[in-house]
Design brief:
This protein is 29% helix and 22% strand. With 293 residues, it is of the alpha+beta class. Strands 1, 2, 3, 4, 5, 6, 7, 8 and 9 form a 9-stranded mixed beta sheet that branches. Helix 1 crosses helix 3 and helix 4 runs antiparallel to helix 5. The chain is globular. The chain starts with a strand and ends with a helix.
Length: 293
Amino acid sequence: MDSDRVMVALGYHGDSFHGSQTQPGIKTVEGSLTRALDRLDWWRPKCLEMSSRTDAGVSVRMNLARIDLPNEVAGSIQRANLLRALNDNLPIGMVAWGVKAIPEDTRIRHSISRHYLYRTEVSHDWPRGFDEDAFAEACSSLQGQHDFTNLCRLDEGKDPVRTVDECSPWVTDEGRIIGISVKSRAFLWNQVRRMASAVSGVASGRNTIEDIRLALERPNIPIDLGRAPSEGLILWSIENDHTSDIFDSSLPDTSWFTPPPDDIRQHTRWLSLARLEMSTLLEREWMRPLRRA
């Protein structure tokens, strides 16, 4: 590598970790990456920074980590060898699949866009038939700049205003709506999961589009539109000034995703299949760049 500072693209299965941030005595993404660097003797204080925080249960096709390598390593290691070394020391359920040298002043948390996919089919009240135009309208109502106080878990001191660049139906090649696709430069805690709950609520009749508008227009009046389960969420990609070589935001082939059963009593068993499908989707996505490495 021609720089001590590298950007590594990481993926992980949400059910393998208790979130991304380091927590004492708990298996997390950042903690697992720290241990891998320590085993390789690459660990130094402040050598690691993660781009995005994710909650327990949330799967990630692409997160980014900034790693400052020791000088003696950076000058000699090749891209494929760096990925191999990391993956030999990362736990099952987590993979490093891309790497690029970046300037020393790069802050990995600064992004142009973050892209999430949520499979609303996993919602417990997902209907067998619904008004697709109303679903699309519900998505559109969340686009633009809004105060998302009612659609997030707001950290103290955080600005609740965010700009959602895209919120649109996630659709299979056959035209079946399976969820939502959401893009923004930055999100609040639980924001996408609460947006997904609000939109799926329009499909099921649990809430209305007007409820969503009131939640946005009157943030000082609490309105609870629910929080969708974490297993439906995927952090799909992150775009910044240095991801052009590895960045791909195109939607995946989901033609093989099975629809929810008509019998609501079978939905719980189908959820196990849906989780397997989403895990398989991620593994397919990671294998492609690793084969080219």
